[in-house]
Every structure is written in C-alpha cells, then in structure tokens.
Amino acid sequence: MLSEFSLIERFFARRARASTPPLPNEAAKVPRAALGIGDDCALIVPPAGQQLAISTDMLVEGRHFFADVDPHALGHKALAVNLSDLAAMGAAPHAFTLALALPRADERWLAAFSDGLFALAERFGCELIGGDTTSGPLNICITVFGDVPPNAALRRDAAKPGDDIWVSGTLGDARAGLGLLRGEWALADDACAAQLKRALERPEPRVALGLALRGVAHAALDISDGLAGDLMHILKRSNAQAVVDADAVPISRALALLPAEARRACALAGGDDYELCFTAPAGAREAVERIGERENVPVTRIGTIEPIDSPADAPSIAWRDRAGAPLSLTLQGFDHFHAD
Ligand code: ADP
Ligand code: MG
C-alpha cells in the first residue's frame, strides 16, 4: 500500500520536477517557482510589474463527474477548468496547486490521472508547485496562478453599450454529451456522439485566445454554467442589457443532430463548454476576426450590449430569432443550490 508521501513523490512531485525546464520558446520567461513541492510553502516570483491572477475550481465526484469517468480525462479537466478562468481574464498560466481527497491509493487510477493532468500542464508551461493529499470522498481542488499586466485583465465589469457580444468555438456540446451519458437522448452517429462526450470530458481552455484579446476585448468570462446565466454575470457587473440573436449562437454539426428544443437548451443554457464570451467595440470587429483566425479558434458575433436608460430597468437579455423577432425563452444557467 502506498503511503501518503510515496504517493505524492511518485505521481506528483517527481513528475512536476521532470516537467519544470523552460519550454524551448519560453527560455526568456521568468522562472515559475523559486521553490516547488516539498517545503511548507512554495515560493513564486511574479514577473516584474505584472499582477498575479489567482483562481480556484473544485471538482466533486457525483456533482461534477461520474465515479467511473476516465481518470486521464479527469486529470485533464481538473486543470482545464482552472486554466479556462485564467484565459477568461487574459492571464498567462504560470503555476498551480493540487488538493486531492482520494478514497484509496489506486496506482493505476493515479497514474492515468496524473498523466492527464501533466499532459495539459506541460502544454501550457504551468508548473505544479504544491498541494495537499488526504483520504476521503474523491474531490479535486486546483488553484492556478497566472500573470497579467496592470489594467490589461479582461474583467466582467468592463462591457460598454454598443459593444458586440462574441463567443468562441461552439456551445452546447458538453451539455449534450452529459445528456448522452444520462440517457436523456441518443445519437445514431457514433462519431458525433463521441465528439459530444469528448467536449464534456476534455474541454480545451482558450488560453491563447484570452491572451490575444487583451487590449481588444472589453469584458470577458468563460462559459462554465451556460451562456444565458454567464452572460448575465457580465451584464450585472457592467450594469447593462444585451440583445442576443439565439440563432447566431454557433453550434457543432453533432449538436445539430439533436431535436430543436434540446439543441437550443444545450446551446443557450448548457454548461461545461469553457468557451469564452466577450464583448468588444464594433470598431474591433476585424481585429477580433483576425485574432480568431490566427489562434485557430472560431469567433462568432451573437449580439450587442445596450445601455440601461431608466433606473427601473435591470440587467437582462433580450433574445431574438434570426429575423429579429423577440423570443420568450426561460433559460437558466446552472446553480449548485437549485435543482437542475
Ligand atoms: P503540510 O504538512 O505542510 O501540509 P504535506 O505533508 O501535506 O505538507 O505536503 C508535503 C509537500 O508535498 C508540500 O510541499 C505540499 O505542497 C506537497 N503536496 C502534497 N500533496 C500534493 C499534491 N497532491 N500535489 C502536489 N504537491 C503536493
Ligand atoms: Mg498538508
């Protein structure tokens, strides 16, 4: 049976040390950890003049993933959802900590989990610098540290009337994948079904896009709880309203195979996509298109930010169809303390 310390050494500390050399094209990047795993604290050196961007996300068995999920995918997703928060802020990933509660020290599970975790960490030059390991119901909590120049962060409170509203990628696949696992619907096309499940289990954090949008976008966030709910966060923080063309919200070919109602609910209110939703002035349209092409991420304009003129009005989303006719949709983002 593995002890706590041999478990940490074998699956996390050794791998972290092995993955620390600077990436070839990043030799100039400031060293990430001045002191990594093994002491009471890690020490990090924030790059001169930059702000530290910090975010924590927790994944709980039965709430965020099924007990039998592929541990490699789980390692990927646990870090991906955290990197996505840095992306949404326009921050560059530097380091992360990992707090892990494990029901048992299953070596095969740990090997696959840490493989998935480090594969993504290495792609983004993000170093594991510490954590905590305990026995208990499976729970994975990661804190990421990134950096962003002062005044460059893409904040939720920065949307301006007249801004376009954009989203990256396509929306709804992850929720559709969850529906497949739960048996809410089925797809005859195996390749499309696999694509939807992959979206749920292996989201791609839009780090390069977030960095490229610095100085171009106004407000941004990552869509973790569904477009309808997450866009409301921008509107509330920016005290604004939105008009959104529901038919302009981009969906994949796989999602298009679902019945119309399920398709729309997944795209507009489904969570776990980790695409970016951002606003940018109309004058930046070409710049945004070019960034999307350069970063190889589709970007789609879905609506506009409108001012709140009367104190009686509250932040809200007016949904329209392709022809501009109003749609009355009751859409809710995911809320952990309400039944879904
Ligand atoms: P402490 O007793 O101070 O809580 P621990 O004995 O829990 O320290 O951890 C020893 C070292 O191993 C620390 O540097 C800690 O950051 C690191 N560590 C513990 N668990 C993990 C983990 N899951 N991933 C990475 N580092 C870890
Ligand atoms: Mg500890």
From TrEMBL:
One of its GO terms (biological process) is thiamine diphosphate biosynthetic process. Residues 38-146 form the PurM-like N-terminal domain. Mg(2+) 4 binds at D40, S55, D85. Its EC number is 2.7.4.16. Coiled coil: none annotated. It comes from the Bacteria. Residues 160-306 form the PurM-like C-terminal domain. ATP binds at G131, D132, R156, S224. Mg(2+) 5 binds at D225. Mg(2+) 1 binds at T56, D57, D132. It catalyses: thiamine phosphate + ATP = thiamine diphosphate + ADP. Gene3D superfamilies: PurM-like C-terminal domain, PurM-like, N-terminal domain. Keywords: ATP-binding, Kinase, Magnesium, Metal-binding, Nucleotide-binding, Thiamine biosynthesis, Transferase. It holds the Pfam family AIRS. Mg(2+) 2 binds at D57, D85. Pathway: Cofactor biosynthesis; thiamine diphosphate biosynthesis; thiamine diphosphate from thiamine phosphate: step 1/1. The keyword RNA-binding does not apply. Mg(2+) 3 binds at D40, D85, D222. Reaction mechanism of ThiL seems to utilize a direct, inline transfer of the gamma-phosphate of ATP to TMP rather than a phosphorylated enzyme intermediate. Belongs to the thiamine-monophosphate kinase family. This is Thiamine-monophosphate kinase. The lineage of its organism: Bacteria, Pseudomonadati, Pseudomonadota, Betaproteobacteria, Burkholderiales. The gene is thiL.
